[in-house]
């Protein structure tokens, strides 16, 4: 991690907040990039310092090959966190595929995160698998168009589409091939899901409660897979409110 606005390899920090009592590491969705979460970072600062993962194969990491699996993503992110130690408590937020990455990062931390926010994806013990990554280009485009979260202009522009399809295919493959997990974390978990999310039922989101030895909360919103866009202010306040309860002495960084 580097100064604000200067890219690191794996983690971006858009709004440095040195006085924040807690940091939040954001793990993006399949095909997603760090810049998608710029607004979340801005809205939580300076109360919470937001770090956003940048996966290989997109934006300023476009020339790199995409990760081969969730474990590779988690290991790369964790190595960069360890290279920039910080004594403040660390929470995690993942959306869609990012929830699986967040879970694997949490499992690898020497000390548990202070909170895990899991948005728009089944609990690790309920992962469905899937075949999106095996479809042709038109099939992948149809899939992401149906769930939202990608600017339609990108999908209509062949040159732009050619830039994002490799990362989409790789990310779907990483998520769909990842095995179910049954680990229990020593931190509270808040699951957030849309009531019309094709990727996650309310029961699959509720199963995140099986993965914590601390507290669990399920929040259901009107909307689909990217209901976090419709309810951005509420998502932000849920996370900010939860993290206000973290005591200053709870140092649980990597």
TrEMBL record:
GO BP field: lipid biosynthetic process
Stored SUPFAM superfamilies: alpha/beta-Hydrolases
Highest taxon above the source species: Bacteria
Chain ranges of the Thioesterase domain: 23-232
Record-stated family: Belongs to the thioesterase family.
Protein name: PyrG1
Taxonomic lineage: Bacteria, Bacillati, Actinomycetota, Actinomycetes, Kitasatosporales
